[in-house]
Design brief:
globular; 22 helices; mainly alpha
């Protein structure tokens, strides 16, 4: 078994090697090559290390970190916006953050099990696995879409709406509710797909969500639709050391992902009004590095005093009609302060994690952001392993959906660090309320902790820790 070639490891190394080579080939300065190699080497080593240890959130974060910033580097070399010294300094700053984050992720203890939280996870597991809940939340999801279509002026206008119209900041609370509803539906569909012999209904629901995401032009939703199921199967095969099955799953996933990414690229270019796929690289898709640099050139270190990382995501769901003076996120603020956009602009640019922690905490933001992110993501990653070892498919998919949100942090408009916690809390409350309405709520009274587990389960949990 140990002699089986690990296709998953080979693909990770090949993919990250391709990204590094892509960036190196665009670099004409020796001063940029060393920071690029250092950054890429550390990220690649961290990705492999945490993938082998089945840490989903941190692995996914490092993959997207390399995608966003290496392609962002290529984009800036293409447009020649900044000098080699500026780009090199920001790559080294990014590397310092990576080292800080890895340090805190490794050092923060995560051995305690909260019995109350475990009972909630058990209850959520039963709820998400309920076929009645799946049908009930699907009905609510369809009614919500019908409401959106009526409010937009009809089906024809709804299909033709631009991305900016669909994500009007004045309706952020509706978007938040829709996100929670969609997430509950997806988690329940995933769970029922895994646990039930009849796969037809979950598959049909996933196909419908795929089509609706196409209409919305939501490229992230298209790519991420089947990622949780793929990750779940990979984790399960790694757990049971079924490496040959793992190779087949990875092979099929790569083919499917290539098809979905190609389809998504076409949807994205059509929605943006461009016929050139190169616009995905050289356009605004990967502009976080540029925006971060411009933020450091425009604002003083720590000028916003935690507004973007801590305050904004905590109040973002409050309708602006109820709070006209509600703070705006850094993503929109830079549209006005840096790019001179008019006041009615509804879109945001991604400040990137470098720009965000610089504006909020200055150069010490590396430590603040690294410690907070390390604590949050480690808790989620260990929760995934506990759910997987306990056979809780539903709660495992809930935590997987939160872990995969870490991909938004390198390229997010603002505040996704705290949104991981807020989204998780609201998702749990929203699911419990829906389950009560639908009539499938049940709070279990199982006792948890190492003392209540079998010898085999104790060994597995201690090994993961």
């Amino acid at each position: 078994m140990s002699k089986i070639l690990r296709i998953d490891i080979v693909l990770i190394l090949a993919f990250e090697g391709f990204l590094t080579s892509f960036a190196l080939l665009s670099s004409a300065s020796m001063s940029e090559i060393l920071p690029l190699v250092i950054f890429s080497s550390i990220c690649t080593a961290a990705t492999i290390r945490y993938y082998m240890r089945r840490r989903v959130g941190v692995t996914y974060f490092f993959l997207w970190l390399m995608i966003v910033y290496l392609i962002g580097f290529v984009r800036l070399k293409y447009w020649d916006y900044f000098s080699p010294d500026v780009l090199s300094a920001n790559l080294l700053w990014l590397t310092a953050f990576v080292l800080s984050f890895v340090f805190f992720y490794e050092m923060i203890p995560c051995h305690s099990v909260n019995p109350r939280l475990e009972r909630i996870m058990d209850s959520l597991n039963e709820i998400y696995g309920s076929f009645r809940f799946l049908l009930g939340v699907f009905l609510v999801y369809i009614l919500f879409y019908a409401f959106e279509i009526v409010e937009s002026g009809g089906a024809v206008h709804f299909v033709g709406m631009s991305y900016a119209e669909r994500h009007d900041p004045s309706s952020s609370y509706l978007f938040f509710i829709k996100t929670l509803l969609k997430s509950s539906l997806l988690i329940s569909a995933y769970t029922n797909f895994i646990e039930r012999r009849s796969k037809l209904v979950p598959i049909l629901i996933l196909i419908l969500i795929f089509l609706l995401s196409t209409v919305e032009g939501s490229t992230g939703a298209l790519i991420g639709l089947l990622v949780p199921i793929g990750v779940f199967f990979v984790l399960d095969r790694l757990k049971n050391r079924k490496l040959l099955q793992l190779n087949w799953i990875v092979f099929a996933a790569v083919i499917l992902l290539a098809v979905v990414v190609s389809y998504t690229a076409v949807v994205r270019t059509k929605r943006s009004g461009s016929d050139d796929l190169s616009s995905l690289v050289y356009g605004r898709t990967f502009d976080a590095l540029e925006n971060s640099i411009r933020i450091t050139e425009t604002y003083e270190p720590g000028e916003h005093l935690g507004l973007n990382i801590i305050v904004y995501p905590a109040v973002n769901f409050v309708p602006r009609s109820l709070w006209p003076e509600k703070p705006i996120g850094l993503g929109r603020r830079i549209m006005f302060d840096i790019y001179g956009a008019p006041s009615y602009t509804s879109v945001s640019f991604a400040p990137g994690l470098l720009g965000e922690f610089y504006a909020d905490f200055g150069y010490f933001g590396i430590l603040v952001f690294g410690s907070l992110f390390g604590l949050i993501l480690k808790r989620i990653d260990y929760g995934i392993l506990r759910s997987l070892n306990a056979g809780r498919v539903g709660s495992c998919f809930l935590l997987l959906s939160l872990a995969l949100l870490s991909s938004n942090i390198p390229n997010s408009p603002q505040g996704y660090l705290l949104r991981l916690i807020i989204t998780g809390i609201f998702q749990i409350i929203f699911t419990l309320i829906l389950a009560r309405i639908i009539g499938c709520f049940k709070l279990t009274n199982k006792k948890h902790g190492l003392g209540s587990k079998s010898k085999k389960e104790k060994t597995m949990l201690l090994k993961e820790r």
